[in-house]
Design brief:
heterodimer, A: about 270 residues, mainly alpha, about 0% strand, B: about 325 residues, two-stranded antiparallel sheet, 13 helices
Chain lengths: ~270, ~325
């Protein structure tokens, strides 16, 4: 159960990464979008209830996501620069907002939706996305734009428009992911995503940019976090394993995967191209 | 083009002023506090210069990779690996030799930490941004395990190493507290001059920029892009490691958990603002140093420090829109 609780935000964020990266938009800003949603939910939920908090948080994450769309697609700046900048704005902005307006939220016990709500979305979304990407016109267009934006353009598909909807979905998914974090812990803390956006990205890469394998990678990473939480430095077979090792494991595995030692390279060909 | 830039600048300023107003803070007072806290007194200026040093050296690390067309987001990880390796050496050789060896070992550690990213980029075509993000996190956990385990100061409650002997520290150029200036800053300027000369006067520097400008053309001109990519990454990592080593030997005196408050990420902003000229990294890092020191003054004044990070984020976006717009391929 702990595994599922720890995996759910990763899965949701990874699906956000899926709709963005399969459309060819590099998205290292998943972290910042999740953080924004978490903070906004913590601020809005005491006033507008759990559903209102969720919706406002989704709007907040989506506006960050569409800012990414605006600067990368309309102004055509490098996706990585934009992602870094959005993460900085999110980290600083949530720090600022929460210290200024978080008095009520700091009392704790924030109203939140039941956890099954988030788990259902987390496990249904990858299957739906798989179906969407393979079987529908919109999904195939997303993949087309992600593998070769120039050819897509020649076929009459506007990458800028397809990516708009891709990033819209990214905002929704990362928004739910951020709210889930607050719902699970009941509080917001400064920089509470603590790298989960990057782990979700790692899982997406490990899953070869495919929805269901990414889900499995998230579950694996969640499982390792659960081990980390439960062992808390107890010895395994007499050997004292530092908890940091478990925490570093997802990143190490991803580096090995990127080096091409785990299956073939499935990077979308149009990633980062215009 | 121009109107877009103007639109973005005004937009960013409006957002900031709006945020401050909503929070019942006067934007004008906030700016005054920020400038007074960073430049208003000799002590404030000394603090700003101290903040500037790691940003300058780390900024140069990002800069040199950027000239080769690489985003070294891993400077953060290379910096803390350099710092930890340098502390390890400096604790064992408590004299001036230890200082020099510490700096060198810090550079080697930084370069080694950049090596996987360089290799994967050059020979497997794996995106350096992703690998360096992953390496940053591994470095974070590795060093955290080191300072809470084998390298921990047993006599202290902190998760930190023991303090480096005074004889191993980098000397002050001017030391009449509160006004202090460390020769680390001069070292940073020397590195900037060295990089500028290297880029301008040597074949390797020329090749590096050729690959950065157009890898396909560079390849047809007979340049081994793989070798250049790897070299750029190693040089960048070494300078990143140097930034960490300098931070230990000049200012901190030890390595501890949470050593870098994100110098490597701020360095990316520094390098993006600086653009194509190594010397432009100097004013860019100074600007970031002012914002960082002034942000602390704002914090004391009741305005959360995060607001300066928001300013930095928008600065990066604006600089990128002005400088790094990709060429329109299809209208």
């Amino acid at each position: 159960m702990l595994t599922i609780a720890l995996s759910a935000p990763l899965i949701l964020a990874a699906m956000g990464g899926f709709t963005s990266e399969r459309g060819g938009v590099i998205n290292i800003a998943l972290e910042g979008m999740m953080l924004t949603a978490a903070c906004v939910d913590a601020l809005a939920a005491p006033k507008f209830g759990p559903v209102g908090g969720l919706l406002i948080a989704i709007v907040a994450a989506t506006s960050m996501s569409l800012l990414h769309w605006l600067v990368t697609q309309v102004y055509r700046i490098d996706h990585v620069i934009s992602g870094m900048a959005i993460n900085a704005v999110a980290a600083g902005g949530t720090n600022f907002l929460f210290l200024k307006f978080g008095d009520e939220a700091r009392k704790g016990n924030l109203p939140s939706l039941p956890s099954w709500f988030f788990y259902t979305i987390a496990f249904v979304a990858p299957v739906l996305l798989l179906f969407y990407a393979r079987q529908t016109k919109g999904g195939l267009r997303l993949l087309a734009v992600g593998s070769d934006p120039d050819k897509a353009r020649l076929m009459g598909v506007q990458p800028i428009r397809v990516r708009f909807f891709g990033l819209l979905a990214t905002g929704v998914f990362t928004g739910i992911a951020g709210v889930e974090l607050v719902a699970y812990t009941g509080v917001f803390t400064d920089n509470m995503t603590a790298g989960r956006g990057y782990i979700a990205l790692a899982a997406l890469i490990l899953g070869g940019w495919r929805a269901v394998p990414a889900l499995l990678a998230c579950l694996a990473f969640g499982f390792f976090s659960a081990i980390q939480v439960q062992l808390q430095g107890t010895a395994i077979l007499g050997v004292h394993v530092p908890t940091e090792l478990w925490a570093a494991l997802p990143y190490l595995v991803t580096i090995i995967a990127l080096a091409g030692f785990l299956g073939k390279n499935r990077t979308p060909a149009g990633l980062g191209r215009h | 083009m121009i109107w877009r830039v103007i639109a973005l600048v005004t937009g960013a300023l409006a957002i900031l002023a709006g945020a401050l107003l909503v929070a019942h803070e006067s934007p004008i007072v906030a700016v005054q506090t920020l400038i007074h806290g960073s430049l208003g007194s000799p002590a404030a200026i000394a603090g700003t210069l101290r903040e500037t040093t790691p940003l300058l050296i780390a900024g140069l690390a990002v800069f040199i990779a950027l000239r080769a067309g690489l985003f070294n987001i891993g400077v953060e990880g290379q910096l803390i690996m350099g710092a930890v390796a340098c502390t390890f050496v400096a604790l064992r050789i408590p004299n001036a030799l230890g200082m020099i060896l510490g700096l060198i070992v810090g550079m080697i550690a930084g370069a080694l930490w950049a090596l996987p990213a360089g290799l994967i980029k050059a020979y497997r075509n794996g995106h350096e941004v992703i690998t360096t993000i992953m390496l940053n996190n591994v470095a974070l956990y590795l060093t955290s395990a080191l300072v809470s385990g084998p390298m921990k100061d047993k006599t202290s409650q902190d998760t930190a190493t023991p303090t480096v002997d005074a004889a191993t520290r980098m000397p002050w150029v001017y030391n009449h507290p509160p006004v202090q200036a460390n020769c680390a800053l001069i070292l940073g300027v020397v590195v900037a001059i060295g990089l500028a000369l290297w880029l301008k006067k040597t074949v390797a520097g020329y090749e590096l920029q050729a690959v950065g400008a157009n890898p396909t053309a560079a390849k047809f001109a007979g340049i081994s892009t793989q070798r250049v990519t790897l070299m750029a990454m190693l040089v960048s990592g070494a300078i990143g490691g140097l930034a960490g080593a300098v931070q230990v030997l000049a200012y901190e005196g030890r390595f501890y958990s949470g050593f870098s408050p994100g110098y490597g990420f701020d360095a990316l902003g520094v390098a993006l603002l600086a653009g194509t000229n190594a010397f432009a990294v100097l004013p860019a890092s100074l600007l970031f140093g002012i914002l960082s020191k002034g942000g602390t003054a704002l914090q004391v004044d009741g305005v959360p420090k995060g607001i300066t990070t928001v300013v930095l984020g928008f600065l990066i976006l604006i600089a990128a829109v002005i400088r790094y717009r990709k060429v329109n391929t299809v209208a």
